[in-house]
Design brief:
The protein has 221 residues and is α/β, with parallel strands linked by helices. The protein is 26% helix and 29% strand. It has five helices and 14 strands. Bound molecules: cytidine-5'-triphosphate and calcium ion. The site of cytidine-5'-triphosphate has 15 residues, from helix 3 and strand 9. Pathway: Cofactor biosynthesis; coenzyme A biosynthesis; CoA from (R)-pantothenate: step 2/5; Cofactor biosynthesis; coenzyme A biosynthesis; CoA from (R)-pantothenate: step 3/5. It comes from Sphingomonas adhaesiva. Catalyzes two steps in the biosynthesis of coenzyme A. In the first step cysteine is conjugated to 4'-phosphopantothenate to form 4-phosphopantothenoylcysteine, in the latter compound is decarboxylated to form 4'-phosphopantotheine.
Amino acid sequence: VLAGSVAKPLSGRHILVTAGPTHEPIDPVRYIANRSSGKQGFAIAGALAALGARVSLVAGPVLLPTPAGVDRIDVESAQDMANAVAAALPADAAVMVAAVADWRAEDAAGQKIKKRPGEPPAPLRLVENVDILATLARSPRRPALLIGFAAETEQIVAHATAKRARKGADWIVANDVSGDVMGGDANTVHVVTADGVESWELLPKNQVAARLADRIAATLG
Ligand code: CTP
Ligand code: CA
C-alpha cells in the first residue's frame, strides 16, 4: 500500500444496486409508479464505490446525478429492471433498494387513451410484476450477500422479518416511511439479519449508506 493511500476494502468486488421507482405504462403518456426519490439507493451505490467496489446501479426513472465511480443502467419498468439485473450478474453482493411497482397494467394501450366527458375508461386490470429480489434469491447466480429493503408504515420489524424469510434475502433493511422519509434526506432503519435486529438512530441518508457499505465490506471480508 502506498503511503497516504486510503484503504479500499471493497476493491475487486462487484456489487449490484437497484434504486428508484419503476414506471409501468398505462398508455404512452400515463403510468403507475411508487413514491421513491432514489436518494437512499444512489447514496448506497456511491458509498460502495467509495470503498473501492465496482458498482452497477440499475436505476428507475429519477433525476439524480450518478455518484462518482458508479456504472449506471437506466430503466423504466419492473421487467426492464429485472432484465438489467440479470445482465449485470454475477455480483458479490446485491442491494435491492428500488421501490419496484408490484403490478402493471395487463394491456397497456398503444395510443393515448382519450378523455370522453362523463365516460371514464374501463377499470384497469393489473397483473403482478416479477419479484426481482425473490427471483435473484433462488437463482444459481445468487450473490453471496443479498440485501433487500422494506419500506413500511407500521409493524416495521415484524413485516421486515417476515419479508426476509419470504424473499430469501440475507438482510432486510427496513425503514419507517410513515413520516416524511420519502424524498427526504434522513432515514431511520432497522437491519434485520439472521442474528437479529439492529436499529440505527435517525441518520442522513448518506450516513445510512456509509454505515451499510462498511457492514457489507466487513461481511464480504
Ligand atoms: N422487490 C423486488 N421486486 C419486486 C418487488 C420488490 O425486487 N417486484 C424488492 C425491493 O427492491 C425490496 C424488497 O423486494 O428490496 C421488498 O420490497 P417490498 O415492496 O417492501 O416487498 P413486497 O414483497 O412487494 O411487499 P409489500 O409491498 O406488500 O410490502
Ligand atoms: Ca411491494
